[in-house]
Specification:
By secondary structure, this protein is an all-alpha fold. It has a single domain, classed as Lysozyme (Orthogonal Bundle), CATH 1.10.530.10. The chain is built from 14 helices and two strands, in the order ααααααααβααβαααα. A two-stranded antiparallel sheet has the order 1-2. The longest helix has 28 residues. The chain is globular. The two termini are 30 Å apart.
């Protein structure tokens, strides 16, 4: 769904679903090759640490301290206090900062999940065969139940209802399984960790902005372990960019409002160049848009296949 990906055919150790900003279309690697890759990575990490020590030794102590504490150094609480100061400096209100971050603690279970993701090796036939048939009946029912909303969504954004409902079903079983991890705690934990600190700090800032503009209360901000929110699993940065108030109640609510969920998902696809009235078969412009939703070719093909089956449903 996001554009922060390594090359498509690189070896990887990331999962398919969460987080989607990881590499999700992977070449399976043998244990021996994986061991060699880890050895190279460890060597590079050691070199980076050695360089940091050498550079640090020659930097004078007269330099002013950075606004935010370096990732993974000192206590989590010290890092969090410095992050709060950084958020305030970027214009986020003290009320949003306090309500969102006071009492937040490090979540070791999130770190464990992040560090233990596995290689995804399922073929399209295997994955689509597992994901689509159990969701066909409910998907067809959702097309009927939200027919008027989906019609307005297509008129506004040009994305057919079948495509939006397919994504909805694959992501969270139509809103049933949105995740139970406290989003702010997850994001703070991953920002404190040094693997992708800058990226998750930016997502944590946007999560505070979601609170500040009144879309979701901090206590309700729960989702997947890597910070995805809502019934189609938006990262906070995408929530800020693409969430829309389609039911006109004054809030962009991707947790509870199906109208907002469906329209926001279509808005995302339109923003990446969805062509109204065109197909979504592999190789098409619209298929490339589906790969902006999830870089995995298997996942994008499964969205398209599910949508096509829904279009044929009685």
């Amino acid at each position: 769904m996001y554009s922060r990906y390594p090359s498509k055919n690189a070896p990887c150790d990331e999962a398919l679903f969460w987080p989607r900003f990881h590499l999700t279309s992977c070449v399976p690697v043998s244990p021996s090759i994986k061991k060699r890759i880890d050895s190279v990575r460890n060597s590079l990490v050691f070199r980076s640490l050695l360089s940091a020590v050498v550079i640090g030794a020659v930097v004078t102590t007269s330099q002013p301290p950075a606004l935010a504490a370096p990732c993974g150094t000192g206590s989590f609480q010290t890092w969090l206090d410095d992050f709060k100061a950084e958020a305030a400096a970027k214009g986020i209100s003290q009320a949003a900062i306090a309500s969102g971050l006071n009492g937040v603690t490090l979540d070791q279970s999130v770190l464990a999940r992040d560090h233990s993701q596995k290689v995804f090796t399922q073929t399209f036939e295997e994955f689509s065969g597992r994901m689509v048939p159990p969701r066909m009946t409910r998907g067809a029912n959702m097309l009927k139940q939200y027919g008027s909303v989906l019609s307005r969504v297509e008129q506004t954004y040009g994305v057919p209802g079948e495509v939006v409902v397919a994504i909805w079903g694959l992501e969270t079983d139509f809103g049933v399984n949105i995740g139970k991890f406290p989003t702010l705690r997850s994001l703070a934990t991953l920002a404190y960790d040094c693997r992708r600190s800058d990226m998750f700090k930016a997502e944590l800032m946007d999560a505070l902005r979601i609170i500040e503009r009144g879309d979701i209360a901090p206590a309700d901000l729960r989702g997947a372990w890597a910070g995805e929110i809502g019934q189609t699993q938006f990262m906070p940065s995408s929530y800020i960019k693409y969430a829309v108030d389609f039911d006109n109640n004054g809030r962009r609510d991707l947790l509870r409002s199906p109208a907002d969920v469906l329209a926001s998902t279509a808005n995302f696809l339109k923003s990446y160049g969805w062509q109204a009235g065109k197909g979504w078969e592999p190789g098409s412009a619209n298929f490339k848009v589906l790969q902006e939703w999830n870089k995995s070719e298997v996942y994008a093909k499964t969205i398209g296949y599910f949508a096509t089956q829904l279009a044929k449903a009685p």
